[in-house]
Amino acid sequence: MGTTTQSSKKISLFFFMIFLLLPACFQDNPSEDRGHHKLTVYAYDSFANEWGIGPLVTQEFEKKCQCRLELIPAGDGAELLTRLELENQHLHEIRADVAIGIDGFHLSRARTLGIFKQVPPPSYPLRHEVQNQDLLFFPFDWGVFSLVRDTKNLPLKIQSIADLTQTTLQKKLLLQDPRTSTPGMGFLLTAASLYPSSAELSQFLKKLKPNLLTITPGWSLAYGMFKKGEAPLVWSYTTSPVYHLKNEGSNRYQADLFKEGSLIQIEYVAVTQKGASNPYTQIFLEVLFSQEIQSEIPLKNYMYPARKNVKLPKEFDTVPLPKKILNPAQINSKTQLEWISLWKNIFQN
C-alpha cells in the first residue's frame, strides 16, 4: 500500500471525470432522452451487474411500462454521488431519472446537491430497522457491516475491533477507501464510534496500518481480491457469506461481528428533478418496492429487504445477529470530514 502524490491524484481525478462524462459528451442531443419511452437509472455496481437484482427489475419494469430501462452501473454508493455531482457541475444536466444506492451516511451530502425532488412515496410497509419519514429518500435494502473471514486461511475468529491490530494479522486485511466507498465509510464510522476521541482513533488506525494488504476504491475490488485468496479478511456485510453458501455450497467464509457493536447501513432510492417529470418513474418505484422484487433481494443483493413481511430464505438462518447496534446520531458532515482527514494523514503518509 503506497502513498499517493499530489500530481498523481490530480491525474487520477482528471481521468475519473473523463470516464464519467464521456457517455454524455458523445450523446447527440441529451435532451432527446427526456420522456421518449425511457427511464435512466444510476445504480451501484452489485445492483446493476448481471448476477445482481438489476436484470430482474429491468424485466419486470419493461413488462409493465412497455418502455426501456437504461440501467447504468455507477460504482459504489459514494462514487454514484460523485458522478451526479460532476454531471451537475460540468454538464449542468443530470442524465439519471432515479439513483439507487445512496446510503444513510451520505444523505446530508446528497441533500445539499439540490438535484433530487420529492415525489409521491411508494406504498410499502417498512421493517422497523429502516423506518423512514423522509419524502426525498426511500429505503430499498439494508445490511450490517462486519468482517468476513476465510476460515481455511485464518481459523481464529475476530471478536473485537482491537483484535485487528494484532501483529499476527500483518498484511491480512482488505479495506475500502471511505472517500469513495460506502463500506469504507462504514468501517471508519464504526472505528470512530468505538474510539470517539481523535487521539484514540488515530492510535488505533496507526496500529492497524501494518495489517492492511491494501485499501481499494470500492467494495467489489476488495471482495474480488478476498475471493481470490489474496487476504483472509475483508470488510463487508454479515450477509456476504450467504453468497458462498448459496452458489458454492461452502461455509468456508464466516462473518465476524465486533463484540463492542455493529453499524447498520441503509441503502436509499432517490428521484432526480429530471426523473420527477418522467411518467415512468412512479411505475419503476412500484416495481422496485413490490413484494416480488423485495423478496429477491436476499439472494440477489445479499442484503435484507426494506419491505416488511418478506420471508427470508433458509440460508439467512446462518447469518449472525449483532448484540449491539452502534448509534450513528453523533455522525454529521463535519465529523465525517474530520475523520476522513485523519484517515488520509495516516494512510497516505
Write down the secondary-structure element order. HEHHEHEHEEHHEHEHEEHHHHEH
Instruction: Give the terminus-to-terminus CA distance.
Output: 10 Å
Our Rg estimate from Cα atoms comes to 20 Å
User: Structural class from helices and strands?
Assistant: alpha/beta
Q: List the uncertain runs.
A: 1-12, 21-35
Question: How do the strands and helices of this protein lay out in sequence?
Answer:
Layout: H1 6-25, E1 38-43, H2 45-48, H3 54-65, E2 68-73, H4 77-91, E3 98-103, H5 107-112, E4 137-150, E5 173-176, H6 182-194, H7 198-208, E6 212-216, H8 219-227, E7 233-237, H9 240-248, E8 253-256, E9 264-271, H10 273-276, H11 281-288, H12 291-294, H13 297-300, E10 304-305, H14 333-347
Parallel strand pairs: 1-2, 1-3, 5-6, 5-7
Antiparallel strand pairs: 3-9, 4-7, 4-8, 4-9, 4-10
Summarize the structure in words.
With about 350 residues, this protein is of the alpha/beta class. It has 2 domains: about 5-140 and about 265-315, D-Maltodextrin-Binding Protein, domain 2, CATH 3.40.190.10; about 145-265 and about 320-345, D-Maltodextrin-Binding Protein, domain 2 (3-Layer(aba) Sandwich). Helices cover about 40% and strands about 15% of the residues. The protein is built from 14 helices and 10 strands. Strands 1, 2, 3, 4, 5, 6, 7, 8, 9 and 10 form a 10-stranded mixed beta sheet that branches. The protein is globular and about 60 Å long. The termini are close together.
